[in-house]
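Internal QA ticket QA-208
Title: Verify multi-chain structure generation after dependency bump
Assignee: T.L.

Test input:
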Amino acid sequence: EPEVTQTPSHQVTQMGQEVILRCVPISNHLYFYWYRQILGQKVEFLVSFYNNEISEKSEIFDDQFSVERPDGSNFTLKIRSTKLEDSAMYFCASNGDRQETQYFGPGTRLLVL
Amino acid sequence: KNEVEQSPQNLTAQEGEFITINCSYSVGISALHWLQQHPGGGIVSLFMLSSGKKKHGRLIATINIQEKHSSLHITASHPRDSAVYICAALTPRQLTFGSGTQLTVLP
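Actual output:
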């Protein structure tokens, strides 16, 4: 069964460094999403992406964040200058239509020191 | 802004018991997701429903659009059902998540 994959599974970085989290959505899906979950808290929506542009973003998704679909398979989340409070699990998800079930990747656990 | 509330926060049951987890939301939605999060953090989608009821194995999800309420039921619970169960409400443009229900099923 096709699945969403994410790399790396864990990332440790120093405050102020740039990180890029990578996702490979399911191949025929058109809508892509990033979510984050700070330890012990709710999952929070960050951004949705369709047709090579952002379709919706939350208040969390400020100028430090950017997303890109650099080729036909990858979907990346970049954090330009990480802060301690960016430490969280980041989930990518995809679906073929906005009204369909979203399929989640296994997550990248980011720790900012 | 959509608020999604789940109850209970924690639930411990004996193997074989019937379990109900509740979810309520504050604004109109186009669909509601029920998700399962395992101890390692991975999230699996269980159901997406916009009306009525859906069943998959021992899991049943219902939704009442007028009352803005959904329930997830697990029949004949088993220790392998132990996980966090999360409801998430889909407004036209984003998912808003509840804080989850930690379910522990004891043998």
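Spot checks passed. The radius of gyration of chain B is 13 Å.
Status: verified.
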